[in-house]
Amino acid sequence: MNLSNSDLEMYTETPSVPGGNGTALVVRNVNLTFPDGEQGLHVLSDISFSVQTEEFVCILGPSGSGKSTLLRVLAGLLAPTQGEVVYQGRELQGPRREIGFVFQKANLMPWRTVLENITLPLELQHIPNSNAELQAQELVNLVGLDSFEDSLPRDLSGGMEQRVAIARALVYDPRILLLDEPFGALDALTRERMGSELLRIWQARRKTVLMVTHAIPESVFLADRVLVLSPRPGKIRLDMSVDLPRPREDGMRYTVEFGEIAKRLRAAIG
Amino acid sequence: MDLINTRKIALASHQRLWRRGVYLVPISVGLAILIWHLIARYGGFPAFILPSPALVWTRFLRALLDGRLAYHIAVTLGEVLAGLALGITAATTLGYLLAKSETFERFLAPYIVASQSIPIVAIAPLLVIWFGPGLFSKVLICALIVFFPVLINTIVGLRSVPDELRDLMRSLQATSWQTFQYLEVPSALPVFLGGLRIGATLAVIGAVVGEFVGADRGLGFLINIGRGQYDTALVFVAIFTLVGMALTLYGLVVLIETRLLSWQQRPDDSG
Ligand SMILES: Nc1ncnc2c1ncn2[C@@H]1O[C@H](COP(=O)(O)OP(=O)(O)O)[C@@H](O)[C@H]1O
Ligand SMILES: [Mg+2]
């Protein structure tokens, strides 16, 4: 289906971000019920929002509120029971190469080395090896894994594994990057560092990012905008812009403004 | 860091071998032969009941030199390898289909399980009646006995492919052939090879069972001849050759495992 501009504007409630041009993704009245038990399990309830190109959006919500489910719908891995996701003027029918996904677990193939894991998406697209390796090598540097190219996943720490996963999602240059609690399994310090690195990568590569997290400070530090989901069935309870200047520096985590925003989010989660 | 890791792995596997007592094997075998020798020597048994190790050794050399042994080995090995090939092909193909469709699995499960409760010795005569005493009936018996463990392990292996990796392949828009090639095969391989290891030794048993029922060649046939002629040393020679064959096949699968699954061995595995 095709959308006119005025259709799109309905969902463009937040001012567009600097450098942003146009809408990357529109989510319209998405409902999702898992066939579970007699009535089914209602997980997503009437979710609507839109995301600007190159916007960084974080999705917060209590556990079980349907954050992962929502992200899987946006990735085209799961079809909504009702409603639709519109990407580039068309209803999303299934996974797309332009939409990259980083899972909660690093999800690497244990029999492939770091470099081979990163080149996997390119191999699947039949991109010649030499080209693929060149592109992968660039990302290895970007995520700071130099000299670990030939290591196997079993020899990596949790943080390093997630970097490989991020590099793998970036290697085919998707326009949209979906991340499902990518730092959930990391300790607090590694997590902060990975957050800063993700920002650096986002600034270098200019992607549209949607990231699920359950850490409030993390979402404030990273996002242009935070969506808060209610407990199941997940509804959008709050859609808030984070008006902190960019580039963000680690010191900002301790400013009053930062604390104010975090407090408002905390109150919304309940 | 690579160098350090490699050295650590080498060291660890050395220690592991030591702990598993691999170096004790020759000592243990030597001791067994010595005890056998002493029993044969001082036990007062006639040679057709218990031949001495020395007698078995000379019988082995004679059978080797007149070319008989090599011929029967070739026959049995041919049956085993053809049976393995047939059994593995059938089991992996059916296993893939069963792993993909639970309806299909439920439909066929009763037959598969029932077929396993019938001992192979009971079916073997039937197969020889139907397909004659030649090569083909032996290959079928081998294939049948190999089939089950390989089938089960193929299914278990394919079912154990993590859902998250399947999602990854889907999100990368992999074709089903690519998912098979890049995800399912490497992921199911460890469990599959475990089944193959069992299947390889079972195939040797299958061939001998088939030859016992009706054959005019092969190591099973040689055992029958030796028994008929009170040439017990020849029976021993045939048995040891069969053991050697089974161990070699087993070793080959283990070798394939260590080559293909090196990513699995953890340097600090105390195994
Ligand atoms: N494939 C599925 N089938 C049935 N129920 C599911 C499935 N996936 C998730 N759920 C249920 O949906 C709810 C939301 O799950 P999820 O989206 O993973 O929440 P979150 O990521 O916010 O913790 C949970 O109650 C979960 O048990
Ligand atoms: Mg989740």
The figure for the number of domains of chain B is: 2
CATH architectural group of the largest domain in chain B: Orthogonal Bundle
- Strand tally of chain A: 10
Derived from helix and strand composition plus strand pairing, the structural class of chain A reads alpha/beta
Total DSSP helices of chain B: 11
The ligands found in this model are: adenosine-5'-diphosphate, magnesium ion
Most extensive interface: A-B, 27 and 22 residues
Mean pLDDT of chain B: 89
Low-confidence stretches of chain A: 1-20
CATH class (first level) name of the largest domain in chain B: Mainly Alpha
Beta-strand content estimate of chain B? under 5%
User: How far is it from the N-terminal to the C-terminal residue of chain A, by CA?
Assistant: 38 Å
The global form of chain B is globular
Report the portion of residues of chain A in β strands: 15-25%
Which oligomeric state applies? Answer: heterodimer
Q: Radius of gyration of chain A in whole Å, from Cα?
A: 18 Å
Please estimate the helix content of chain A.
25-40%
Strand order, main sheet of chain A: write it out: 6-7-8-3-9-10
Overall geometric form of chain A: globular
CA radius of gyration of chain B is: 23 Å
Characteristic terms for this protein:
heterodimer, A: 270 residues, alpha/beta, six-stranded mixed beta sheet, 8 helices, globular, B: 271 residues, mainly alpha, 2 domains, binds adenosine-5'-diphosphate, binds magnesium ion
